[in-house]
Structures are given as structure tokens and as C-alpha cells.
Amino acid sequence: MSRAFIDIFKVPELKKKVLFTLLIVVAYRIGAAVPLPGINTEAVRALFAMHSNTLLGFLDMFSGGALNRMSVFSMGIMPYINASIIMSLMQGAHVIPYLSRLAKEGEQGRKKLTQITRYATLFLGTIQSFGLTMAISRMPTPTGQPIVVDPSAAWIFMTVVTLVTGTMIIMWLGEQVTERGIGNGISLIIFAGIVERLFPASRNVIALVTMGEVSLLKVVALVALVIGVLVCVVWVATAQRKIPIQYAKRMVGRKMYGGQSAVLPLKVDQAGVIAVIFSVSILSAPLTIAQFAPGWTVFGFPIAERINLWFNHGSVWYSLVYGALVIFFCYFYTSIAFNPADVAENMKKSGGFIPGIRPGDPTAQYIQRVSERITLGGALFVACIAVLPDHLRQLLNAPFFFGGTSLLIVVGVSLDTIGQIESQLIMRHYEGFMKEGRIKGRWFNVK
């Protein structure tokens, strides 16, 4: 593995991509540390210390700590993710035929869809930033000090514009990484925010052990538990169901071709971190609605109060909704990223068939059944990992955060980024990080 890291800097193009990605991540972290003007930072820290286990603290994790600093990047990338979800749902359900046609027009259609998504991000970002601005200008703090020094109309306007601009900058940074760097830019930005919080958490744990407030045995047991969860996540993220494929022999001129055996790999967790990120983004919407007017009532029913109660991070209702959303998006992403009919058609054209299954529609139906079954197992596992560690952490009164959602994102993004670097190295005849990852035989691009 050390040799593979050295080989990265031997390939000029790959070296340039890696350094560019690191530069973008550093720029994002600098922006996350720049506070908004007119904010009482001490009152903000006290507020988030009180709400660390609520959905507000959970969203702060996705912003990389920018929310509890009330920085220019406090909105994070959530408006862009919400816009992407809406666009994907509209395309998948054929709600707007124009969007469905654009999705089939290749590169030009993709550019138009990206532009529409940007406009949707601007619209959603404006609404959410206004809600956040109004919330922090009214929200009480444990110390009794106001968060906003002077919540005038001019300050509200300036803050909304600043937050929306910050979101658009983050979106642009993520797109630059995807196009010119390594890995998925949006996922890497979320990844960087989560990893950054690990270092202060580690220092706090060491300080607690040193002062004797937490036993060393308890910390070791919790670390072992985290490592066990990580192993399970890696195992499922890399698990595949391999469908055997046989190629018929055929004569081309005087030579005999075919007669080879291959496999069609189907990932158990096809959606990866996408399902988790989409689910968290959807869950953030009710909290945003509740912040617009904390005193909202309908026929005497306190809407905002109930939203804050039901969507409290770690509550049973929150866990059920979160798990259901993860399962839904696992299936949804698989349905739009993997088309069994196309795979069966390509297999038929190349002379391949699954032993015991007729080519054509029967092959597509068989692949569809297998895909649905393994997706169910993967979706249930991801839902459990996303929900259960949070409850376990509260039960054991853990001195540090090891939420399942953060573990899923860190592992998923790491594997995806390493996989892209691996393919770049092998393509240029260098050894990858995992020698056993080399593939022999014929494989299909299932995406």
C-alpha cells in the first residue's frame, strides 16, 4: 500500500488531480471557519452544546461544524442535495416529460439538467437560509445571551445573501472536484467535515481518561465496537453477488471465438452513501419548516413543537422514518443506476447467456429478481447501521460520537475514492492498493 501511495505522485495527471482535490478541501475548511458578522459565537456554542444529540446537532455534523460556528458555509450542501433529489424523483417518476427527455439526450441533456439543478439549488437555498436566519435571530440560548447582536432588516438581508452565496460556492467546489479531481466532490466535502470532527473528539476523550472521568476499559470497549461496525460496513460495501455467464463458441473466419466463462457482479449495496445522504437531507426539511415560525399552530395543534419532538435525533419516530427513507432510496437509486434490460440485451449481442436461463427478457427478469433480493439485504443492513449505533451510544453514555451515518459516509467515500485512484494506477500499469482487486475475465458495466 505504501508503494501505491508513492506511485500516485509518479503519474503527473493523477498527482495533479489529487493535489487539486486536497486544495479544494482546504478551501472549503477555511470557508467553514469564517463566521457571519453580528453573531455572538459564545451563545452559539452554548446552544449547540445543549442540542448536540438533536437533529440540529446532526445537521451540524454534515456541515463540518460550520453550523455551530455560524460561518458563511452554515447552510452546507443540503440545498443542492435537496434539489438533486427533486430532479431525480421527477425524472424517475416521469412527472415532467421534458426532464425525462433531457436525461436521454446524452451530454447536452446532462448539462441542461445540471443547470436546472443549480437554479433549484438557488431557490431552495434562499428559502432555507431565510428560515435559518429567522431561527437564530429568535432562538433562546442557555446563557440568556442573544445569538444575534442586532437582528435588523439589513442584517437579515445580508445574512440570507451570504448564506446562499456560501451554498453556491460549496456546490461549485464540489463540481470542480468531480470534473477535475478524484472522487465525488459533494461526498468528499461531507466526508471532510465529518473527519475534521474526529480530531477534537479524540482529544476530548484523552482528556476525560486523563482526568479519570471515564474509565480506560470503557473507552477500549467502545473503540472495539466502532472497529467492529467499520468491518461490517466495509464487508457489505464491497460484497457482490456474482452471476455466472457462459459465452457460446462462434466461428469468425478461420478462428474460433467464445466459449469462455465470466461473471456479472451485482453489488449488495448499490446505492452506497447516496441513500444515507439523501435520507438525511429529507429529514432536515421538517426542522427547516419548524424554524420559520416556532409558534405555528393549526386548530390549536403546535406544529413546530411536535416537529422538534418527533424529529429529535435518537427518538423512535425519527429512527423509523430515517430507516424507511434509507431503504426507499437504496431501491430508488438502484432502479435508476442499474437497468437489467440493457444488461441482458448487451449480453445477448455478445453471445453470452446465464446457464439455465433463456437470453432476452427471461434473463432480464432473472437479473431483476436477484437485484431486488440483494438490494433488500443491503438496504436493511444500511438502515440498521444508520440507526442502531446512535441508540447504542446513548445507552452506553459514550464520551465521543460514533454515529452509524457518519461511519457509513466515511467508509463509502473512502472506498469510492480509493477505487478511482486504483483504476487510474492500474490503467497506467502501476500496482493498485489491493492486488487481489484485479479482475480477470469479462465484466459488464452495470451502471
Largest sheet: 3 strands, antiparallel
Secondary-structure element string: HHHHHHHHHHHHEEEEHEEHHHEHH
Class based on secondary structure composition and strand pairing: mainly alpha
The coarse silhouette is globular
Proportion of helical residues = 55-70%
Radius of gyration of CA atoms, rounded to a whole number: 24 Å
Distance between the termini: 28 Å
Walkthrough of the structure:
The protein is mainly alpha-helical. It contains 18 helices and seven strands. It has helices at residues 2-8, 12-32, 41-50, 55-62, 66-69, 78-93, 97-103, 106-138, 153-180, 185-196, 198-211, 216-238, 274-292, 303-310, 316-337, 340-349, 361-396, 404-427, and strands at residues 240-247, 250-252, 255-257, 261-267, 297-298, 301-302, 352-353. Strands 4-1-7 form a three-stranded antiparallel sheet. A two-stranded antiparallel ribbon has the order 2-3. The protein has a two-stranded antiparallel ribbon with strand order 5-6. A hairpin with a 2-residue loop joins strand 2 (250-252) and strand 3. The longest helix has 36 residues, at 361-396. The two termini are 28 Å apart. The relative contact order is 0.12.
